[in-house]
Design goal:
The chain crosses the membrane at residues 236-255. It comes from Pseudomonas fluorescens. This is Putative cyclic diguanylate phosphodiesterase CSS motif-containing domain-containing protein. Keywords: Membrane, Transmembrane, Transmembrane helix. This protein is an alpha+beta fold. It has a domain at 62-163: Beta-Lactamase. The chain has helices at 4-72, 80-93, 161-169, 224-266; strands at residues 97-104, 107-111, 119-120, 129-132, 143-148, 153-160, 176-181, 184-187, 190-191, 202-208, 215-220. It has a 6-stranded antiparallel β-sheet with strand order 3-2-1-6-5-4. It has a 5-stranded antiparallel β-sheet with strand order 9-8-7-11-10, with helices on one face. Helix 1 runs antiparallel to helix 3 (161-169) and helix 1 (4-72) packs antiparallel against helix 4. The longest helix is centred in the N-terminal third of the chain and has 69 residues, at 4-72. The radius of gyration is 33 Å and the shape is rod-shaped. The two termini are 26 Å apart. The model has no long low-confidence stretch (mean pLDDT 85).
Length: 267
Amino acid sequence: MLPMSKLMHTGRSLLELLLVSAVGLIPIVSGLTVMYYQLERKLDENARISAHEALFAIDRRLDSLLLTASTASQFSGQACDNVIEQLRAMTASDPRIHSLELTKDDLAYCSTLPTIIPHHIDITAGRTVRLNFDSPTTPNGVMVEYRLSNDGPGIIATSYGIELRRELQGFQDGLVLVLEFEDAYLWSQGDSRDQQQPSQSEFFRSTPSTRHDYRVNVGYPAGYTLSEARMLMVQVLPSLTLVGLLTAAITYWGILRARRKRERTTA
């Protein structure tokens, strides 16, 4: 059997080794914890700011469409032959405007485009904006329709959905933005005709517009935070490891000094 003094020395050495290892790990664990916390704060703040920036950009686009519809509303209720040239002149003056239509109740009876007139209008009562995926003039495209007046004479101004997509494509930091118009959706690479919407499960926010009938949904795809954390870890782990090793070395040196001092005192 080992002498008691040797057993005590072995046990003390083991405890010192565990202490040095624990002290060396503290800077690494603490640094990684702070890194992950700061990453989460950054992503959450970016989602919040991006939602408001997207609202501002989309509101501006829809404001322009509303202004055109409001200007053209002076012709609502009039005979198509009497005002069609003025309506065409308005659309020609602004390349962002696709068409103008005069309506009465739920029928469009006059259009600046060579469409079938009259035709039924499918816009929910009380709502002014919708996405149209079935426009005969833009097969497989997306049109944004802004309607003034759901009852009696009214006006519909339309623009290209690609204009909204371009606004969303300006957000290139991994955040996914989806525009929700009642039961229709639009994002930078697709729309609600796709079988599956993009993932927005992390730091999700849904912010309604106070000026138009839509909302902006923002969020990061599933696994995005972990992926970003891995990339950051590769960058910071060498530095944290070096700090941990230096801390462990200083601690070990302090233990050695204390041991030698104790041995001299005992001797």
